[in-house]
Write a structure and sequence with these properties.
heterotrimer, B: 314 residues, mainly alpha, 12 helices, 78% helix, C: 278 residues, 11 helices, 0% strand
């Protein structure tokens, strides 16, 4: 046993010696293994943190939700449905080949399923994203013209999404898709991917803004357990990781660590399956909303570090209707009880509902708290935590009895534009309107807003639509969380925002 | 003897067949499907249909089964639904991690357990014996995940020590590999050391009480020779059986340990596969683990038969 | 064959047996009287999250502000319930199959043992995980999965003792004087299986509790808000440093529970099966 201990301690020393040899590589701690790096088809979070280093889009979003050119140097808008982009001339793909207008055209044809590969299941192919594009053509080597079928006020915002990354067609021709390949123009190149373990990127020497990039590379390590990630940060094994609010106080106490945060556009919500008879009663849905104590939930689940929110979170700025204007969001358990009694429920006649939740901490824990809160108003929630595959499968079916669930706790991304936060989730038949909500006036307002360029009038339309959706309580917004990054104290140049939380090109180590 | 070996090897064929049918049937009963998982939130029904056809999930079950088994016999376990990559090479890479963990775990447990077991037997009812019995009882009673957490917490708080990240194979960088593997192997070893210790102790005691040992002693052999040359050899028979059986719990324990220590092994691949509804991966991994397990049991049996001349082969 | 009373007397004589008996008894009392002993409902969020142990909350509170002491008590209920029912499932199916296989031998024996070999061809935790993947999570399915996993050991134990009992002289005699199969099995053969069967059941209990804890720890077993020690521990993992009491108490109770069942199993074996006594 003594020998074991000695051997062990010497290994500890060896380890310290190793970690002292820090180079200019950023070491990231990931919650789970990325699933692949095709920016057009993969919406998964870890992968996005990698893909955003490999790929770039024509335009990018500023923290104030305005846009600036990235691969496009500038653009003009000759009429309401035409956009002409002037591309940067010094951009190269990682293969060394210069990027031209033909590549932009190819990328969007691929997204829209107009290449010979056909429909690749691109996330941006729907009308809520790029489906409105009528033609994309190369005017010359460095000029691209987009013509839309309808006026689409969200177009530039959509272009800044990684679903619209510009990709190298030669790499796709060689690999079939981009899940394990790298056909980007971004500041870093994919070097290696060891499944369930690490992904390593190296700096792209010919990057068009190479002077700006000061890291030599990024290695992402998969460390599923948050406490292990925290330990790794403290012992200097990794330089950066996301952290839940509850562990932030520990990181703050450590002089070698630094905490960064931003108000995200991700929010937790509770949705009602509209095929469940009990939930077709608006009184029951509203009672559930009245009975939800958002502050209490935020204290428990997010250690107080989140904002109570509706279905358009405060990070969308003026597009979001403030909560005090929304009556149903004022917690009132007595009123909720009275509504339930009116709907025929009582202490002896309780309502049992089956709720789907997931494995993500925020979703899982919110469900547990809601279960307690709704018990007060004669509702018994039966929670089932689904694995990712089942969760997504169930999500699709949440408007039908086949889902097997009456309610679902979801974490939705409200995007940076009200088209995404309202139309994408609440318009009849929209791709993320999974709970089966349908309201003619909301549909009408969404269409009107999309074809209205004037921001003030748009805001009026979206506000009205928003209030209708909120009053119907098919999906009740709960909390919009603050996201935390913990980094080593000598890491600088990282400023995550809701608009862009995975821009690592400016990071550097202070010597 | 030769007949016994042949018969024992033939016996595993129906078991393997049964195992594969069981795994396949179980996989078909699982709710939710991987295609939804792989498509994510915004996939279209057409694409779903296309993928279903591509992976042969539209064919009748028996055809799916036969196709799978024929492939397996050629070392082709199909492609992962998530990554579209062939499963077999990935499984082999993963297996090397699990195998290393299992072997190191076994070695550590033997190094700890066998000498202590012998000591306890030769010093029966003395201090060392009591210590060993308590230690062994604790060893069998503490679950590997609980021990892992305690060890990680203790090392991080007291020594600010944390297992290095980024698995590298032994052949790439032996020092770093061992740094990474030592802690999980230690935990895994401890959890089975208890039962090996008890088995060593009890079978040593049994042998030491037998007549032939008394004869050896009477003939004036030294205690050392008595124990090492005569007693130990006989005591090893049940120990080997137990060790064979323990490989199974080591493989099972590895599933949990790999998860806690983020090691890219076969157990982690299986759990990820289950979480992602990646049928071919889970099917392949579980079949493979079962195969290894059956193989180890077979080897144990044959070894046992070889060592113990008393066994009859009929 | 020893009578129950004698077994009990011998068990009490052995200091380890006493510890095991008293421990198991205490555990059962804790579980049965959990509603009386607990200070709060195990699901109720009664305090600020992560309060350290104090006079009001003996074991502190968890990240939801629930009383850990009360959750541990109800967790004992869950552990014992899962353990007893899953071992009950395994033992009764295993007993019947073992008697059939051992008594009739021949083809039916080969079929049963082949199925058992198949079940035995998996590491037990892997098989349990695999079965819950089909059945879905939750307390009932966890019991079924652990039950299925434990069937083969019972079949083997019972079968082996049936086969050796068949060779006993008085059984042969009973058979030759024409005692019918069923009474023969029940009156003459089954009693011979009781000793190894009881030892096996006690040991299976501890391994069932361990498997449940492991599965719940992996998130595959008991689902919230049901308190299970394994899931309490996996929840606690993220708060190890700020709230070590969230980790320590579940570990303590898991280890102690398995320990006392092992102790009891060991002394039972010594009493019932003195051949193995060391």
């Amino acid at each position: 046993m003594k020998k074991c201990l000695i051997l062990f301690l010497s290994l500890v020393l060896v380890c310290f010696a190793c970690s002292a040899l820090a180079d200019n590589i950023l070491r990231w701690g990931f919650e789970s293994d990325p699933t692949g790096f095709d920016p057009h088809t993969n919406p998964e979070d870890m992968s996005i943190r990698v893909m955003n280093q490999l790929y770039e889009t024509l335009v990018a979003t500023n923290p104030d939700m305005t846009y600036y050119g990235r691969l496009a140097e500038s653009w003009e808008n000759p009429d309401e449905v035409t956009y002409v982009f002037h591309l940067r001339q010094n951009v190269k793909f990682h293969s060394g080949r210069p990027m031209t207008a033909a590549d932009v055209v190819y990328s969007f044809e691929r997204i829209l399923g107009r290449t010979e590969a056909g429909d690749i299941g691109a996330l941006g192919s729907k009308s809520t994203y790029y489906g409105d594009i009528d033609t994309v053509e190369a005017v010359d080597d460095y000029t691209v013209k987009f013509v839309l079928k309808n006026v689409n006020a969200a177009f530039l915002g959509n272009l800044s999404s990684n679903y619209g990354a510009i990709v190298d067609k030669d790499v796709i021709a060689a690999n079939g898709d981009l899940m394990r390949a790298d056909g980007g123009t971004g500041p870093f190149m994919l070097k290696d991917w060891v499944r369930d373990n690490n992904v390593s990127l190296v700096k792209f020497a010919d990057y068009w803004e190479a002077d700006r990039v000061r890291l030599d590379g990024i290695t992402y390590y998969v460390i599923g357990d948050e406490s292990a990630r925290l330990a790794a940060l403290r012992t200097g094994e990794i330089d950066i990781s996301t952290m839940s609010a509850s562990n932030v106080p520990i990181a703050e106490k450590d002089a070698n660590l630094k905490v960064l945060s931003y108000q995200s556009n991700q929010y937790i919500a509770l949705g009602c399956n509209m095929s469940t008879p009990a939930l077709q009663d608006k009184r029951v849905r509203q009672a559930i909303t009245y009975a939800t104590d958002r502050e209490a939930l935020i204290n428990i689940v997010f250690s107080g570090q989140a904002m109570a929110c509706s279905i358009v979170p405060p990070s969308l700025g003026h597009w979001s209707v403030p909560l005090d204007e929304l009556d149903v969001y004022h917690t009132d358990v007595e009123k909720a009880k009275a509504m339930m009694e009116e709907a025929g429920y009582s202490k002896t006649n309780r309502l049992s509902l089956k709720v789907a939740a997931g494995l993500l901490d925020a979703i899982r824990q919110s469900a547990v708290v809601l279960q307690q809160q709704l018990a007060e108003i004669y509702i018994d929630l039966d929670i089932v935590n689904l694995e990712q595959g089942e969760y997504v499968d169930t999500w699709y079916k949440m408007a039908t009895p086949e889902a097997g669930f009456d309610m679902m706790v979801v974490q939705d991304g409200a995007g940076t534009d009200p088209n995404r936060s309202v139309a994408f989730f609440f318009k009849t038949g929209a791709s993320a309107n999974v709970f089966g909500y349908s309201n003619e006036r909301v549909d009408e307002l969404c269409d009107l807003a999309l074809s209205t360029p004037d921001p003030d009038i748009r805001e009026g339309y979206y506000n009205e639509a928003q209030k209708i959706c909120i009053d119907d309580c098919v999906k009740t917004g709960i909390a919009c969380m603050t996201m935390y990054y913990v980094t080593s104290a000598n890491l600088d140049g990282f400023a995550p925002t809701a608009a862009d939380a995975s821009n690592y090109r400016d990071m550097y180590f202070v010597k | 003897m030769r007949n016994y070996v042949i018969r024992r090897i033939l016996q595993i064929i129906p078991v393997l067949l049964g195992v594969s049918i069981l795994i396949f049937a179980v996989m078909k009963l699982i709710p939710g499907d991987v295609i939804s998982g792989a498509l994510g939130v915004e996939g279209s029904p057409e694409l779903r249909q296309a993928l279903t056809v591509k992976y042969g999930l539209d064919k009748p079950y028996h055809v799916q089964y036969i196709n799978w088994i024929l492939g397996v016999l050629h070392g082709d376990f199909g492609d992962s639904l998530r990554t579209s990559e062939p499963i077999f090479p990935e499984m082999m890479r993963r297996f090397s991690v699990t195998a290393e963990l299992t072997i190191l775990g076994a070695l550590i447990s033997w190094i700890i357990a066998i000498p202590l077991g012998i000591l306890a037997a030769t010093h029966r009812n003395k201090g060392i014996d009591r210590f060993v019995r308590v230690f062994a009882l604790m060893g069998v009673s503490i679950p590997s995940f609980a021990l892992s957490i305690l060890v990680i917490l203790f090392l991080a708080l007291v020594f600010s020590y944390f297992s290095p990240l980024g698995y590298v194979s032994f052949f790439e960088n032996p020092v770093k590999n061992l740094q990474i593997m030592i802690l999980p192997s230690f935990v895994l070893g401890i959890t089975i050391a208890g039962s090996i210790m008890r088995m060593t102790r009890s079978s040593m005691l049994e042998v030491l009480q037998q007549d032939f040992i008394k004869t050896v002693r009477a003939k004036g052999a030294s205690e050392r020779i008595t124990i090492f040359k005569h007693a130990l050899r006989n005591a090893f028979i049940p120990i080997i059986t137990l060790i064979g059986m323990q490989i199974g719990s080591l493989l099972g324990g590895a599933v949990i340990i790999e998860q806690i220590f983020s090691l890219p092994g076969l157990g982690q691949m299986t759990l990820t596969g289950i979480n992602q509804r990646d049928y071919p991966v889970v099917q392949g991994c579980v079949l493979f683990i079962a195969f290894i397990y059956i193989l180890v049991n077979l080897i144990t049996d044959l070894l046992y038969a070889y060592i113990d001349p008393r066994i009859s082969y009929n | 064959m020893k009578g129950l009373r004698q077994v009990f007397r011998e068990l009490v004589k052995d200091p380890m047996g006493r510890i095991g008996l008293i421990g198991v008894l205490l555990l059962i009392l804790l579980a049965v009287f959990a509603p009386l002993l607990a200070h709060y409902s195990p699901e109720k969020m009664v305090s600020m999250p992560k309060a350290a142990p104090n006079q009001q909350f003996w074991f502190g509170t968890d990240n939801y502000g629930r009383d850990i002491y009360s959750r541990i008590l109800y967790g004992a209920r869950v552990s014992l319930e899962v353990g007893l029912i899953s071992v009950g499932i395994a033992a009764s199916i295993g007993f019947i199959l073992g008697i059939i296989a051992g008594y009739f031998e021949g083809r039916i024996d080969r079929i049963i043992m082949c199925i058992m070999d198949i079940l035995f061809a998996f590491p037990s935790i892997l098989l349990a995980i695999f079965i819950t993947a089909v059945l879905g999570r939750g307390i009932e399915n966890t019991m079924i999965a652990i039950g299925i996993v434990n069937i083969p050991v019972f079949v083997r134990t019972v079968r082996a003792s049936v086969i050796s009992a068949k060779g006993l002289e008085y059984v042969q005699n009973a058979k030759s004087i024409g005692v019918k199969t069923f009474p023969l099995l029940m009156r003459h053969i089954a009693p011979n299986t009781i000793a190894p069967f009881t030892v096996q059941a006690t040991l299976a209990l501890s391994s069932a509790i361990l498997t449940e804890a492991s599965m719940s720890f992996l998130g595959l077993g008991i689902q919230p808000p049901d308190p299970s020690w394994g899931s309490m521990l996996s929840e606690a993992r993220a708060f190890m440093e700020q709230a070590p009491w969230m980790v320590i108490f579940p570990i303590l109770f898991i280890v102690i529970t398995i320990l006392i069942f092992n102790i009891l199993g060991d002394s039972l074996r010594d009493v019932l099966d003195p051949k193995l006594k060391t």
